[in-house]
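Data card: per-record layout.
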Amino acid sequence: MSDRVCITGIGVVSSIGIGKEEFLSSLKAGRSGIQEIKAFDTHFSRSKQAGMVQNFHPKDFIPAGKIRRLDRASQFAIAASKLALADARLSITKENSSRIGVVLGSGFCGLSSSEAFHRSQVLKDYFDLNPMLFPNTVPNAASSHVSIELGIQGVNCTLVQSFCTAEAAILFACDQIQLGRADLILTGGVDELSEFLFRGFSDLHLLATDEGYGEKSRPYDRMRNGLVLGEGSGVLVIENEAHARSRGAKIYGYILGYSLVGGPSEDSRREGIERSIHLTLRGGKDIPIDYISGAGNSSKNLDALEARGIKQAFPFQYPQLPVSSVKSMLGDAIALGGMRMVANVLSLEFGFIPPTINHTFSDPDCDLRYIFHQPLDQDLQTILHMGISPQECYATILLGRSWN
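The structure for this 404-residue chain is written out next.
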């Protein structure tokens, strides 16, 4: 079929590396990008750590004269998009620009720009507003800046779906490819961590604290007590397979299935996960799954919910299915699924399962075959990517090396 969706490029800006080589090295080493926050004051919170991007120099990707007009999230998105295009070995021209699109997920985009703009509006009325900040206060700032900087004239969209935001963007982008509305799309997610956002999560008591075992992202551990926030951008180049083959592109793998569903009540949350998995597998329970890329984020309830949903979807296979969560290294963010999908592509390409780090105490509510501490070398043909939001949203993406 000519509308099959394949992945031909990846780009990432993250707390554990900028570019796929550094990102890959950190994943294999189980290296954490979470450390004490220095970018802003955290005196108001018991939580002090986050997975913040270090050593990012926007001038490496963006002309100097444009940098100060861009919020940090847009800088991340442009950098990751340029890295992905370079990896896909694609040049955007006047001839192909209208068939190329951008579909990104972003929870709050340039929230620090929005905060500065509206703070000035409240304190000083409209007499002293900074007009350069205004374009960055809208949720679609990052995708728009990517399209402007790269000269993309096709599909352009921004999605927000709680902690399934990047997954929702990727699913929408796949639909656009299959409907013939684009030949190639840059898709994934981007988030920027600011003091304003950190304060919100802290005041809601959602963040991990040090209860004697360190403030860490520890998915599936009995002592987990909250998530650790992160930031960055992960971008995939997805294409119509016929388009990819016509230009001789390297194909990392295919997106074989996907779904995004909601759950109407607390009692049916694990059924929502099961339903999402079955829709993604198109009812084919016998489709072999080599690895489950977990959404575990060190939240007491979400990690256990994921385990129950996987067991319900795979009642006989689950003891053998390896599961891990790279959020232990990256932290969590609304659109972290973009970076997670880049990690999945690298796992598929290089035959390994990245570890869940920071695990010390077993939890009977999380009793799957987790890969802890060290990566597992294993030939992978399929990866099932899980996305779970506390706001009753469940996303699943099946990634494979070949089309079945």
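Known properties of this structure: The mean pLDDT is 91. Residues 72-88 form the longest helix (17 residues).

See the next section for split statistics.
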